[in-house]
Amino acid sequence: MGCADRVRLELMDSDVFSLDFQADDKPHEECGVFGIYAPGEDVARITFFGLYALQHRGQESAGIATSDGQRLFRRTHLGLVSQAFNEADLSALPGIAAIGHTRYSTTGQSNERNAGPMLTVGPQGPVAVAHNGNIVNAYAIKENLEAGGETFETSTDSEVLTRLIALSPGSTMIEKIRVAMPALVGAYSLAVLTPDAIYAVRDPKGVRPLCIGRLGDHWIVASESCALTTVGAQFIREIEPGEIIQIDMDGLHSFPPAQSDRHATCLFELIYFSRPDSVILNQRLYLVRKRMGEVLAREHPVDADVVVGLPDSATPAAIGFAQASGIPYSEGLIKNRYIGRTFIQPDQRLREVGVSLKFNALPEVLENKRVVLVDDTIVRGTTSRPIVQLLRNAGAREVHMRVHAPPMMHPCYLGVDLARREELIAARMTVEEIGEHIGVDSIGYLSLDGLLDAINAPGAGFCTGCLTGNYPVPVQLEMDMHKLVLEREPVAT
Fold first, then answer.
1. Catalytic residue status for 31
2. Could you say which DSSP state residue 428 is in?
3. Are 463 and 451 in contact (CB under 8 A)?
């Protein structure tokens, strides 16, 4: 966790200015999960492309597990989905069903051992689990399982969750999952694979997304509906909080929650994480984010000449802001969309000439203009100031920052790699002080009421923990320490 300490701004020889920095200042994605039960289909290949569509949710590692009806097979690798698998990998993953996982670590170090799906063997046979979310009490569960003789091979809460399910009492997997769920405090959307079925599980709060699709006569589950579209499947519906879905040779079976609970969908799934073409709460997120920009324009009007969105995540809100305010929208920042995540750092010579790693500013759009810069979040504030300076160096006369989310003042414990409270700029400064710190002429954040108005989902419940400090589950004050202990403990080799 943590952005680069060094940010360098350089003037290029050309008339385009470039910003060079090692990491962005955003909440980082959690994980993406995918599952398909499709006898007669190349389930590993379909899962590969499903994960490809979920790449934005995690770029550290990827894995696929398949079942041939009797045995489970698994391949996991570090890196992007396109880098993690080749034809030989897919050929080694036969079967009638598959689950996949693309990971960004929120608990557990980044190494191949921690790559999902997790695989274990319980009293009734092998079980593989792909997990999106974070289990707040993972260390306590791990201690209890170790006291019963279990040994662990990774430092992730996902392995703890997998072993808990496999070892829970019950004659069926549904019974085992039902027993395990009350013990799991936190957020979890799961794709579970056994030799003869796939199970999709969403925690009773519904913090992380999970949906169902249909591909011909076959069923698919995925973190987001965009993955269904990618593989040619039809979006059917979202899985309800607390619901368990079983998919086997007899089709799809739904097991509703034993009791209703207060729902708490993560607001940042709608603001930032999920792709704009995905559907959450029966709404296309592009349109939801566009409305966020419209409300933001009403709450924080400004006299300006051009609206620019920080690409790509703030583009829909910037368009909404422009339409509501009557100020023209233009692409003043161009993103290098192929930079991805790289472990190769530029050498000193490249740094000195100002190699563009992330954004280029366009003087023809910005010169002598009063610019509204729309962004989705400001976490630590470490990259906002250089981006503002980038606009000014490209000729912007004024820069007015508008953020289509409320200030993030608290850490996330439910599956987002955010920051510690002392690192969050909104926890240390007032809004006016943030504006001064990043060097803008004015700044405005979307209010929480305005955000909920833009989402326009009456009756829906949301997690506002990172905004208000009010979490939907009990959060232990020592959770951060427990997480560090879990990560640093030696694992079996």
1. yes
2. H
3. no
**Can you read off the two tokens belonging to residue 7?**
């940010």
CB-CB contact of 213 with 225 (8 Å): yes
The number of helices, as runs of H, and strands, as runs of E, in the chain is: 18, 25
Alpha-helix residue ranges (DSSP H) falling in 181-265:
225-230
Phi and psi angles of residue 375, each rounded to the nearest 5 degrees, phi first: -130, 160
Q: Is 152 helix (H, G, I), strand (E, B) or coil?
A: coil
**Going by DSSP bridges, is the β-strand pair 462-463/265-266 parallel, antiparallel, or unpaired?**
parallel
Owner of token pair 């009756």: 459
Q: What is the pLDDT of residues 93-152, one digit of tens each?
A: 999 999 999 987 554 455 678 888 999 999 999 999 999 999 989 999 999 999 999 999
Cα separation, 188 vs 141, whole angstroms: 15
Structure tokens at 442: 């004015």
| Per-residue pLDDT reduced to its tens digit, 241-253 | 999 999 999 999 9
Determine the Cα angle at 458 with ends 457 and 460, to 5°: 70
* Structural domains for the chain: 7-26+285-464 (3.40.50.2020), 31-273 (3.60.20.10)
Strands 244-248 and 398-403: unpaired
Cα–Cα nearest to 474, from 140, 105, 30, 57: 140
Q: What is the rounded CA–CA span in Å between residue 193 and residue 66?
A: 8
Task: Please give the Cα distance from 346 to 352 (Å, whole number).
Answer: 10
Burial 437-448 (b: 16+ CB within 10 A, else e): bbbbbebbbbeb
Q: Spot the catalytic one: 31, 211, 412, 466.
A: 31
Token reading at 464: 């506002």
